[in-house]
Specification:
By secondary structure, the chain is an alpha+beta fold. The protein contains 4 helices and 16 strands. The longest helix has 23 residues, at about 10-35.
Length: about 270
């Protein structure tokens, strides 16, 4: 007797079900790989509470370009646009995603980082790099920056810097340094007021140190600690001899006035 060949026996209903499943899988892959950049723009705006916005986003979630706007929040009166355009490339990998941000106005090389989900949180690790930003961008974040209206440049450098969220707790590792150069404010006629450095050191007990690099006008100093959920900072501001009148309004705004000094306390 000849061997009988076994073959799947699909009736019409089964065939339609398999076809529908295949179509759904195809749509899911298409959405994953060709999702429009405007979806990323909407997600970023929601995540940042309206402080960061991608405008005129083009391309896909994975590769695209847009204008970047720093805003004081949803409906906020202050909004500052980053010069030029921002380009991004996202690449999924087995344990998360890697990203490169191309910002010609502010970084000679793309800024790269990786994001990795963790039990109860997320880890964001930045590759070592440098960038330079106009201090005026801070105005877009609302108070107190929209009152100070700073001008000057901010150089940011990072070494093995990472942020790790575990529920509401945020752990910091590595080092990040901000050098603010030739800073001026609309609250003072003295331009520039000086140059300053903010150094953040991660680890079991992350610390923040504020120092004055050049203070022929405004002198700043202070230190703080990050406890996992809030920054506790104590510092002071004062005017260099002969600059008291030019900086009086500013000193009244940035802290609690105590004689010739202004005490700055956070947390």
């Amino acid at each position: 007797m000849a061997a009988r060949r076994l073959a799947p026996n699909f009736d019409g209903a089964s065939g339609w079900r398999w076809a529908a499943l295949g179509g759904l899988v195809g749509v899911a892959f298409a959405l994953a790989f060709f999702a429009p950049a405007r979806w990323l723009a909407a997600g970023l705006s929601q995540w940042s509470n309206g402080h960061l916005k991608l405008v005129n986003a083009r391309g896909t979630v994975w590769t695209g370009t847009a204008g970047l706007v720093f805003s004081s929040g949803a409906g906020g009166a202050e909004a500052i646009s980053l010069p030029g355009t921002l380009g991004w490339t996202l690449r999924p990998r087995w344990d998360g995603v890697t990203a490169a941000l191309d910002i010609p106005c502010c970084a000679a090389k793309p800024l790269e980082f990786s994001a990795r989900p963790r039990p109860g949180g997320l880890e964001l690790a930045w590759r070592d790099g440098q960038s330079r930003w106009p201090a005026a961008l801070l105005t877009g974040f609302g108070a107190p920056w929209n009152t100070l209206k700073l001008d000057g440049t901010m150089d940011v450098s990072m070494q093995a810097f990472s942020l790790r969220w575990n529920g509401p707790q945020l752990a910091l590792a590595g080092r990040a340094v901000l050098d603010a150069t030739d800073i001026s404010s609309s609250l003072s006629t003295l331009k520039p007021m000086g140059s300053y450095r903010v150094a953040l050191e991660g680890g079991p007990s992350p610390s923040l140190l504020l120092t004055t690099r050049e203070g022929s006008g405004l002198q700043l100093s202070g230190s703080g600690r990050w406890n996992g959920s809030a920054l506790h900072f104590d510092g002071e501001a004062s005017a260099a001899p002969g600059r008291e009148d030019a900086l009086s309004n500013l000193l009244n705004i940035i802290g609690r006035r105590e004689g010739a000094r202004s005490l700055i306390t956070l947390g």
